[in-house]
Design goal:
Elements lengths: L2 E8 L1 H5 L3 H10 L3 E8 L3 H7 L9 H8 L4 E9 L1 H9 L12 H5 L8 E3 L3 H11 L8
Antiparallel strand pairs: 1-3, 1-4, 2-3
Helix pairs in contact: 3-4
Length: 140
């Protein structure tokens, strides 16, 4: 397996509940190293740009409003097979369907308010990391 980087976002529902540290403990427990991290407040236009691939979907406007509703923690994770490992530790999109021990099962409130976002492919990871971070900010 190769060392990869992936983007992780701790979403507004989780930052409102002040559980970012607990989520990061899950990530680090899965041997994912946090090599860049910052807390940001997305504008609606930034959220729309980040989620542009979903622009034609019915949930797009609600998703963008939600992601701009409170601060988020964006971070770059690094590790062996990091994309798949991160997706595994996050769990299914719907917390009701997520396996026990996953972030979404433990902390998610619903399909949208599921506490975390993660890249789904190497191409998405590269695009998403570049959206939030310069190479100089990634210190792994």
């Amino acid at each position: 397996m190769a060392v990869q980087r992936t983007l992780s976002i701790i979403k507004p529902d989780a930052t409102r509940r002040r559980i970012s540290g607990r989520i990061n403990a899950h990530l680090e427990g899965a041997e994912l190293n946090i090599v860049a991290q910052k807390r940001v407040r997305l504008s609606i236009s930034q959220a729309r740009a980040f989620y542009a691939e979903h622009a034609e979907r019915a949930f797009y406007d609600d998703l963008c409003a939600y992601m701009a509703s409170a601060p988020v923690v964006v971070q770059v994770l690094e590790g062996e097979d990091a994309i798949a490992r991160h997706r595994e530790v996050m769990g299914a999109t719907n917390p009701a369907d997520a396996e026990d021990g996953t972030i979404r099962k433990e902390f998610g409130l619903g399909v949208q308010e599921n506490s975390v976002h993660g890249s789904d492919s190497p191409a998405s990871a590269a695009r998403e990391i570049g959206f939030f971070f310069s190479e100089m900010e990634i210190v792994g």
